[in-house]
């Protein structure tokens, strides 16, 4: 019985550690229905899909996981500036594809701004063409 309690407590902790990634790559992928999350290293694909479904009330179709290796960083330590090297931690990303027609609210405002900017550019081009004639 104690093991079940530990699993549920772990699931609650892991669920809150799904961090949406806000980058250009994530924004581009969101146009195709794929959303990018930073996840803990030991979280499985099934638990990622379950956590996304519970947290955002959507249906994930596919989950792909990749690990970005941590880089070596150089620094100095102490009064005489003793050189040291530090290994940055690895970061694990999950790419979650949602069912057709489902979206997450992360990039909705940015998509609307991009559409408005594209429309403004088209209107400007039309006005320039009319001005030249």
Would you write up a description of this structure?
This protein is an alpha+beta fold. The protein has a single domain (2-103), classed as RRM (RNA recognition motif) domain (Alpha-Beta Plaits, 2-Layer Sandwich). Helices cover 44% and strands 28% of the residues. The longest helix is centred in the C-terminal third of the chain and has 25 residues, at 108-132. It is flat.
Globular, elongated, flat, extended or rod-shaped: what is the shape?
flat
Please, how many helices?
4
The percentage of residues in β strands lies in: 25-35%
CATH architecture: 2-Layer Sandwich
CATH level-four homologous superfamily name: RRM (RNA recognition motif) domain
> What is the CATH class designation?
Alpha Beta
- The span between the termini is 81 Å
User: How would you spell out the order of helices and strands?
Assistant: HEHEHEEEEH
Number of strands: 6
Low-confidence stretches: 1-6
Helix-strand makeup class: alpha+beta
Largest β-sheet summary: 4 strands, antiparallel
The total domain count is 1
Mean pLDDT: 83
How big is the Rg? 22 Å
